[in-house]
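#struct-queue
[09:14] JT: dropping the first one here, sequence first, then the structure tokens:
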Amino acid sequence: MKHMNSEVKEERTANKKRIDLFLVPIVLIAAFLNLFKIWTDEYANAYYTAAVKSMLQSFHNFFYASFDPGGYVTIDKPPVVFWIQTISAKIFGFHGWSVILPQALAGIGSVLLLYVLVKRTFGVWAGRFAALAMALTPIVPAVSRTNNIDSMLVFTLLVATWMLFRAVRTAKFGWVLAAFAMIGVAFNMKMLQAYMVLPAFYVFYVVATKITWKKKIAFLTTATALMLAVSVSWAVVVDSTSADKRPYMGSSQTNSVLELAFGYNGINRLTGNTSVTGSSHKQPAQTQQQTASSETKQNSNSSADSSQSSNQRKSSSSQKMQAPGGGNQNGMFNTGNPGPFRLFQKGLSDQISWLLPFVIFSIVGLFAGVKFKGPYTTKQKESLFWLAWLLPVAVFFSIAGFFHQYYLIMLAPPIAAFAGAGAVALWSMYKQHNGWKSWLLPGGILTTAALQVYIMSPYVSSIGVAPIAGVGALGVILALVLAVRKQRKNSLTNYLGAAVMVVLLAMPAYWAMTPIIYGGNSMLPSAGPDSSSGMGGPPSSTATNSKQSGFNGMQPPGSSSSNSSSNNQMQPPSGSSNSGQMPGGSSNNGQMQPSSGSSNSGQMQMPGGSSNNSQMPNSFSSKSSSLKRKSGGMNAEVNQKLLNYLTKNNTGEKYLFATTDSTSAAPYIIKTGKPVMAMGGFSGSDPILTVSKLKAMIKKGEVKYFYLSGMGKGGQSDVITWIKENSKEIPSSKWQSTSSSAQQGPSGNGTLYEITLK
């Protein structure tokens, strides 16, 4: 106990010391990467931004995280992060940057927390290197510059880690409870993803605490019970509330938060056993182009300019739609194919894996000589914690059936921690000529440089040969020089250590800046020279000029386009058995093809939607950096002519209009703050409405206009059929824009209907 008290006194003394001047530039780098130009993103991820707009209007909407101001359906995630975003928007005003700000600050906070966590045990230089590695991990700023949840989630889990470390040092049970309660809070940010760190928490507490097994079991059982209670607290309140007194739980099939947590946002991510049609189906790993989540709809309509469309019309009608990077082998959204080396595949490696070889060598060095039965040093105990965080999460992403690239931010803390702690440990072993362990540093440098060359090689047409050759050559030279100078001691050796860090972090630093240089994507954030596409993969030989990001090719409901169809269009599946469709179609060798017997077998299709000429982005455009991001994924512009017509002809109805899914609804909610009904929720597949319920709503005068674009028919086809059979079609001349500048998209080919029942 005296030892514990002395550690606490040392910590307090350290906290009184002046600020670490080396940390200041690291924090400034993190601030620049996370904050610079976030004000150019007007609407961020429009799906979530629309929810914040709605949550600002009433406590009812705020508590349930309602997508629309009318409280019809919630978003597909729990509310804690959106509560924070709403408070930010309340303080600073409703803007894109004000809903992004909390995540940007969380990204900076994670850098500081990692410094604090690593510095205490492994030394100040280890803390500095870890903080810098965290700041420069490309996916970290890419996610933190958006209003997606993951940056805040990681920050919260690092706060829980700090509490756990303090619990072990002070032997106070209260800190154990606080640490596990914080994981419960994180669960209410992104559900089961928060539990990915639990193996690390359990293993570390069992190994590091010097109390009896009886107390360990009792303390962990109590802390786990508290964590579960905090985790399900909001879910229990919502699920126990009468369905007619709250919004429908979006993206669930049974209107249940718990189903959402353990299904759509839980086990189905591992199995890929989800669907946008209201039913489940197993997604073969080799054909992930048929992605298994309704989230896939968000990035399927990336834009291409008219010249690119013209070029594609010249291609064969049987051409396969390849994933960015030129091959189907990279899986949907470039998440690769499941396997032990998935994190080294294209599309994932450039987001998170730049330092992985160095981390592997660091792990070997940090655990060298450790005996299974102990005793363990503090460094070994904390190394075990980071390893127990790293391995389960890495295994998940290696075998998972469905995830997006930005989920990889969960790997950033342990990778950065091992990079910092390992750099100091391997350097010490090298300088002390510690047998075979002294070769770990040169070996780590050489293999890491080789991996970085491999990561950059598909981008040679974008970044040139020089940086690739430079990293490879310098890596080899530094490794050889360190090997040759192993027996010498002078100041030059210390400079070599600094050179090593510069070489290994130079290209991750560039990659981390790409969302600023080339533009980012707030819907599906990723880093790389094509970061604005949201696909995070290497470019193909044919470049496209990206007008906006994400859903860039989508036009506002009611807009028309002068662009005609092409052989590589995205078109709606209508039950065809053709291969490679988005959810709703079947698979044939991963090829993107049209449904409904279309002759254009190179086309890609959206679920239930209509055709458009926006193709999958295969490369980046240097122009994107000078373009103002509208929504990072969902076209947040509205058709003013349609809006004027709906506003003028509204006779007191609660909803401005109803539409199939959130894609068409979100821009109008953001623009007007008025209720717009997404009848099928986010993807259009939620079984929210029935014909009888809709009739009752129309009779009550709650809604009379319906914009149907063909999107999201799964789960509501009867409702859509009834609307068409019992409505009056509004002539397009009264509400449809004829702007030739609008990009073609599935939302632009719809029809406006009016229904009045007495």
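[09:21] JT: and here's the second one, same format:
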Amino acid sequence: MTYQVYDTTLRDGGQREGISYSVADKLAIARLLDEFGVGFIEGGWPGAMPKDTEFFRRARTELDLKHAVLVAFGATRKAGVAVGDDPQVRALLDAQTPAVCLVAKSDIRHVERALRTTGAENLDMVRDTVAWFVAQGRRVFLDCEHFFDGYRHDPAYAGSVVATALAAGAERVVLCDTNGGMLPSQVTRVIGELVDRLGVPAERFGIHCQNDTACAVANTVAAVEAGVTHFQGTANGYGERPGNADLFAVVGNLQLKLGLPVLPDGCLEQMVRVSHAIAEIANIAPDTHQAYVGAAAFAHKAGLHASAIKVDPLLYNHVDPAVVGNDMRILVTEMAGRASIELKSRELGLDLAGHPEAVSRVTNRVKDMEAGGWSFEAADASFELLVRSELPGAEVARPFTLESYRVIVEHREDGAVVSEATVKVRVRGERVIATAEGNGPVNALDEALRLALLRHYPQLKGFELADYKVRILEGTHGTGAITRVLVETADDGGRDWTTVGVHENVVEASWWALVDALTYGLARTPAA
């Protein structure tokens, strides 16, 4: 059986609050979706949206799709207008795509109240428009908007819209849970009833689910299990309100859990890369806890889990992370046991298997430090330095020793706020004093420390403080609260690493994170 993977990220996904794709963005996303192996890419609504009209024009010469068919989206003809005279219908044809997707009302209440026409005229609109595009040599899909709500209200009329589209030549009629209110058992029941009512196999139907009950993925999978062969979704579940069915989760479930061949060979392992690349284009941070593709999707924290994973990784992973392009991660926290420490160290390239005493020391230090507010979950570089300090022969020498540092914040008469830091350090036997200004006390401290070290460590020129996060720890209050600082550093070679510092004073916490960041980076970056 052939399954049709239909992506609507460029149209329905673009309706998410905060997303506004440029034409260049849409072209880049289309290429990524094609690399993922989807069968159909819905590019937008030509004629109704100037940006979408431009997209289809450029797509004809700028897109070379290997797997996907480009689809233009639009409505059936207007009531009382001949199909060939409807400007929006003509714009769909002018998009010159091999396939079109038409949206039609299938809830009689919407027909009468929104379209202000009759049920009979709406059926004629469906029949005329589908047949016209089929005669033009186009593949036609019909989205039955508000189908499930309409079916609940008037099953006979909703079914007649489906039957009319199929009789006119639609390749698939898509049952839309437009309001997102369905549950999986209800989807299964309605599809079964529709098959019996129309005498049409479920494989002629499609499914499109919104996520208002957080069931869009489950509803989509339920429809496929009921026999539907065409399913729609968006990258990362983007869409209006709570979003659409997450295409990546749907594909992962169908291919890995049900064994259905929904993607071409070699495409499934592109899932994480494509998901994250689309998130970057949309300017939305990737969801770390998203199924299959999130950074935490295969991250394990409890020591009990790690003990089992040490024996067999699949004991606590529902699939091999590599099949979707992801990796298993071990999180080092106060819950960590010896197995967690060993596995995480191995992940970082350090073998503790033959050093039981070092494992014990690291485990105890982690638990003691985390009890005081430290966290190594997101600070692999600091954790690696800690392990190396306890592993004979693997220690990393600190690049300097601190004599003192001082930070001054000056609020000037003109309202300007200037931070200045001075550090006194010993570097390779030399006492160095350096002063620098910054746009805040931490930035000034970072600049002063780099200035002090630069002559001895010129590779610091390639380091950049990429991100800085501060968290006031729970259970502490007021200006004396314990502060945790995470610093992300990047170099000009494309590498990045994160370090952590904790103290009652935010500047001191930042200092510890900065020292770890420079120490780790210098150990990994040989002098030129």
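[09:30] RK: nice, looked through the second one.
[09:31] RK: Residues 303-309 have pLDDT under 50 and may be disordered.
[09:31] JT: good to know. The chain has 17 helices and 16 strands.
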